[in-house]
Design a protein that fits this description.
About 10% of the residues lie in helices and about 60% in strands. By secondary structure, it is mainly β.
Length: about 140
């Protein structure tokens, strides 16, 4: 293929308008190894496994091809461990809900800066069990 053709195609790709769907859905699964000493109180190095589901809806087309989105997500996470010479079964669960707004302003098809504002709530619980005794928080 001719180098001029390749360069022309690359330039057209960079200048083309980006795909702008009106709806966006996402799913993510993460495993985090936390190194915080406070986390070690109820984990033995086991990873914190989290699953997140998100959805975005384009609600407004702004100037200069900008878009305003309403977005939300739900995140669930948990970890468990045997601590203190396997005498305590410890488990922790985290639930998080987030609602926000995002404004995107595409400069090129591959560069789309954004501004995001959001608020959320996190609820966590911890359970410790040992020989018939249970402690919950």
């Amino acid at each position: 293929m001719n180098p001029k053709t390749i360069i022309s195609a690359m330039l057209l790709t960079c200048l083309a308008s980006p795909a702008m769907a009106e709806h966006s859905a996402s799913a993510r699964l993460t495993s985090t190894f936390v190194q915080d000493p406070a986390f070690a109180a109820f984990a033995d190095g086991s990873p914190l496994v989290q699953a997140e589901l998100g959805y975005s809806l384009q609600i407004l087309k702004g100037p200069w091809r900008g878009r305003l989105w309403l977005e939300g997500s739900v995140l669930l996470g948990s970890t468990s461990a045997d601590l203190f010479a396997d005498r305590w079964d410890v488990s922790s669960s985290t639930y998080q809900a987030m609602l926000g707004a995002r404004y995107t302003l595409p400069v090129t098809s591959w560069f789309v800066p954004l501004v995001r504002v959001g608020a959320g709530v996190t609820v966590a619980s911890m359970t410790m069990e040992s020989e018939g005794e249970t402690v919950e928080d």
